[in-house]
Amino acid sequence: MAHNPHAPQGPEGNPDPAGSTQMFRAFVDEGEPASRQAPQQSGSKTGLIIGVVAVVVILGVVAWLALG
Fold this sequence. Notes:
By secondary structure, the protein is mostly helical. It contains 3 helices and no strands. The longest helix has 27 residues.
């Protein structure tokens, strides 16, 4: 792991792993407001409808094979 002079130091002067994690999260969260935009509703609804239709068709085929 690379040495980070800005990371918080523990009581013995050893780097604090939690400090590195906090710095990483702060770095990752910098661009988060742009990624929190609402997803496109039409795309998610289309995928949901296709998934429901596929499940109904699969269940129908399984029932037909089981009863037939």
